[in-house]
Amino acid sequence: MKSIFALLPGILLLFTACSVNKLQSQASSNARTLTVDAETSRAAIQPTMYGIFFEDINFAADGGLYAEMVKNRSFEFTLPKTGWLEPNSDRWSMNEGSGIGAVVKEDRSGKKANYLKVIVKGDKYQLLNEGFRGMGVVAGQQYDLTLQAAVQAGNISGITAQIVDGAGKVVGQATLSVSGSAWKTYEAVISVAETVEKAQLKLTFTGKGEIDLDMISLFPQDTWKGRKKGMRKDLVQLLDDLQPGFLRFPGGCIVEGRTLDRRYQWKKTVGPVEDREFLINRWNTEFDHRPTPDYYQSFGLGFFEYFQLSEDMGAEPLPILSCGMACQFNTGELVPMDELGPYIDDALDLIEFANGAVNTEWGKLRSDMGHPEPFNLKYIGVGNEQWGEDYIERYKVFDAAIKSKYPDITVVSGSGPFPDGEMFEYGMEELTKLNAELVDEHYYRSPEWFRQNATRYDDYDRNGPKIFAGEYAAQSVAIASPDNKNNWECALSEAAYMTGMERNADIVVMTSYAPLMAHAEGWQWTPDMIWFNNLSAYGTANYYVQKMYANHPGTDLLSITEAGKALTGQNDLYASAVRNAATNELIIKLVNTGAKAQELSINIKGAKANGTVKTLTMVSDALDAVNSFEEPTKISPVAGQAEVSKGMLNTSLPGYAFVLYTVKLQ
């Protein structure tokens, strides 16, 4: 007879198998059962469902997306030598020292323009530009230097341009030969030998005398699509990777301006770059906790460039224009109704600029700038987030004028800066009466608010305006707090809320997180979707949530329910489902805002599904976890697989997780 010890391994194996089967049976019986109707389309998902909102805040344009590395290149700041240093000059005497630079203002080419008059007395005179919190240069890369110069006296024959590190070490240089008293543009290429995050541009002079300088510029050659004097490649790539359905620009509160004189005027941002007028950025001293008095707009990134960027990304352009109201959080200055004509003309002329034939005034300018084909503009926004009777009164005039001349253009209106309250209720009521087409809603609220309001659009009037959630972001501390973080709780809560927007895709047709970008040392507002310094950039957890939705929008909204009800946070579970008709795929988005894993059995009805399911999972046990320059993808999607058999998908949804399932239908 065999020893009991010889039989023990088999007994243990049998016991283990029975235990596993028992646990699986218990898991299956304890699983929540969800049902997806994969056959019935409840609404078409608009191609514009997920897009990008760009505003020039946090040094997002100059010092960010616009790749110019020289700050105050034409000496137009209020303090016109801002950004420029003269370490070896004698600032107080014209008769001693190595030299001095003085800003001169004169009328050149019919425009008021500043330039720098430099008197060089000795070979130690230096002129440096500090860049935007430094200049990021990369070893092996080449940089295009251009400047305008006119030699007015003496024997100055050359300018040596050097890129130097923080210790003054030269990492790249080029020499320009200059001559003549007439203004000329000089160009050179600087090759860089070392990577430096905070370099400076240094100019020294061969000879002595007097020379005038203007439009001193330095750009990387490696820009987006290789365009000279174009956009920063890595930042645009992060945007393009989102596959956005639209690009809303240029803001935001900069559209309105603190005063009407400082509003954004698109006509001043097109045409030759050297003729575009500088403007102080309305965010430069907005917050006491982050004053940035050196924050200006050169408009090198102007409306033509925004349209071009939209085209590059396959996104619908959505420009927002002033409606004759300065920011109501600042001065609230109003244009009288009988003086609104120029503002309306700006809107009509912009449509002509974007879409007009080349024989029209503004269509010709677009063509002269290198784009004879129209940009096919379909949307235009009237005002940013104005509110009250003054806004409604002005909106009506704009809407009538635009529709009269361009009936196919969709006019975007606004419901104010908040998602509720008296101002919001009044705006929505009036805009509904006026049959407004598309209303822009803004909300910056706590993560809890986002989790609790996933049903926000369930009861909206289906005969009312369509909705554009144009600015939203969970605030970890409070609105505009400098201590806000792009942590996982905020991103996870946004993912939960977005299931509610997707479930209501019949009425919510555009959505965009805000703000988009922030310089690590030049920011004013947090949180922000993308952070960058002079050399690198990373997407936050919020960025990857947006990317998961935007890269998997589907074409048709489907229902996903539990016991016949939509999943809107019951026991911490949120869900939405779409079908991609082009690829015949079912895409399920599940969000678990609780700490415990959830066992789910998902029954797919109305379509055959078997085999491997692709998954993308974002998960972290730490709700305060964030991405960083050191760990840029700490919280980001991880690819995996699951299995679906006979239309049933059994899965375990981790705690604090956002998981996307792509099911190939047969």
UniProtKB/TrEMBL annotation:
InterPro entries: Alpha-L-AF_C, ASD1_cat, GH, Glyco_hydro_b, Glycosyl_Hydrolase_51. Residues 470-657 form the Alpha-L-arabinofuranosidase C-terminal domain. It comes from the Bacteria. Its EC number is 3.2.1.55. SMART domains: Alpha-L-AF_C. Transmembrane segments: none annotated. It catalyses: Hydrolysis of terminal non-reducing alpha-L-arabinofuranoside residues in alpha-L-arabinosides. GO terms for molecular function: alpha-L-arabinofuranosidase activity. Keywords: Glycoprotein, Hydrolase, Signal. GO terms for biological process: L-arabinose metabolic process. Residues 1-22 form the signal peptide. Pfam families: Alpha-L-AF_C (PF06964), ASD1_dom (PF22848). Belongs to the glycosyl hydrolase 51 family. This is non-reducing end alpha-L-arabinofuranosidase.
